[in-house]
Amino acid sequence: MERLQKVIAHAGVASRRAAEKLIQAGRVEVNDQIVTELGIQVKQSDQIKVDGMPLKKEPLVYFLLNKPRGVISSAHDEKGRKTVVDIFKEAGIEERIYPIGRLDYDTTGLLLLTNDGDLTNQLMHPKFEVDKVYVAKVKGRVSNEALKTLRTGVKIDGRLTAQAKAKVVSVSDDRKHSIVRLTIHEGHYHQVKKMLKAVGNPVVKLHREEYAGLTLAGLPSAGQWRKLRPNEVKALKQL
């Protein structure tokens, strides 16, 4: 027996949280009966439908993508722009995958995609403090005071960010730009850009080079991707 929202998430229809909303909206049937109660347990033999369509269980798949600039981190885009999921559809991947978290439209780098709702919720839950490493090209020279603020917490949107790791990698000869490596474990909207702007160094380019211990090794070009190895999936689930 498993919870209904978990079964829907494992089928690749939606993340577990999104599945809960489907249930509450009366869009899910179990054995031809509409179910709106969260937490209901279902058996393997139960017939489940979402929006009238029988649920088909998909094998769980896990991918690592070097996200290009100008691509939306979503399964769909109302404006018709290319999404990260489109990259996999073009490659013949049939499972209904979705990204774990988001990278901005103009941000490049490491992004995970899967149809495993449980793992998605685990990695995105704040209590697990999953490290994300970004490399940013910013305006100006980053002062020691700015680095100290980044490390101890920056006030953005009325709240203080968690402690982070911050290091200046290089400074241009004319001192008009710097390269900064920033490690955070939060994932608020535009967080890295807002943090760096708050200390006086607006972002020019942003790239995520590491997530939960995974790197882009072997995927040097934007748009390249690979399947996660079994030991990598196991390590993610043990975080």
Would you write up a description of this structure?
The chain has helices at 4-10, 16-24, 84-90, 117-124, 144-152, 191-198, 230-237; strands at 2-3, 28-30, 33-34, 41-42, 48-50, 53-54, 62-67, 98-99, 108-114, 132-139, 155-156, 159-160, 165-171, 177-184, 203-211, 214-215, 225-227. It is of the alpha+beta class. It has three domains: 2-54, RNA-binding S4 domain (Structural Genomics Hypothetical 15.5 Kd Protein In mrcA-pckA Intergenic Region, Chain A); 62-126 and 214-237, Alpha-Beta Plaits (2-Layer Sandwich), CATH 3.30.70.580; 131-211, 2-Layer Sandwich (Alpha-Beta Plaits). Strands 7, 8, 9, 10, 13, 14, 15, 16 and 17 form a nine-stranded mixed sheet that branches. A four-stranded antiparallel sheet has the order 3-2-5-6. Strands 1-4 form a two-stranded antiparallel ribbon. α1 (4-10) packs across α2 (16-24). The two termini are 25 Å apart.
Summary tags:
alpha+beta; Structural Genomics Hypothetical 15.5 Kd Protein In mrcA-pckA Intergenic Region, Chain A; Alpha-Beta Plaits; 3 domains; nine-stranded mixed sheet; four-stranded antiparallel sheet; 7 helices; 17 strands; elongated
